[in-house]
Amino acid sequence: MQLGCRFRLVTGVVAVALTAAGCGSSPTSSTTTSTALSSTTGAHAATTTTAATSANFNSCSVVTQAEAASAIGTSVSSGVLGNATVEGGLACVFYGPSAPTPTTPNVSQADTVRVVVVKGTDAMSWYNDYKAKVSPQAVSGYGDQAYYDGYASLSVLKGDWYLRVAVAPAGAPPSLTDEKQLASAILPKLQ
Known about the structure:
By secondary structure, this protein is an alpha+beta fold.
């Protein structure tokens, strides 16, 4: 066999082995890659999100694309990570088909679902900080305490977790009903 053929054979075997290794499932993690359009460059940037593990936790770890689509009532893109300036940390943003372009996960936009989860000692501070900036309306039955900010999101404090969800359908005002539905799907995962 010629050297070029052996190289292709070895490369093919390595590719098959890597593919086979990626096909196994792990109860603690899975990886999804999504693409976002950068608002500054217009280029697509890949963002990898990993399912919930203590080492790789992020806001996309606790919500599925199907859960986000169900809450907003239409198909949505894969979750894209962006900065969460209100809560600290990262937001997981899903875009509906009518989301304005360019999309940027760092700011709120119409036809999106935003999920932010903060875990740890800062959770209560971020929860209370945002609560002090809005006219909170208490909501019972969610976590240890929860409030609707009056126009765009539901914030929930559960133990050392702070969950904030905002469902902004295209052509309609945000709905607390949609946000409650999504919070109900996410809260059992926060343990």
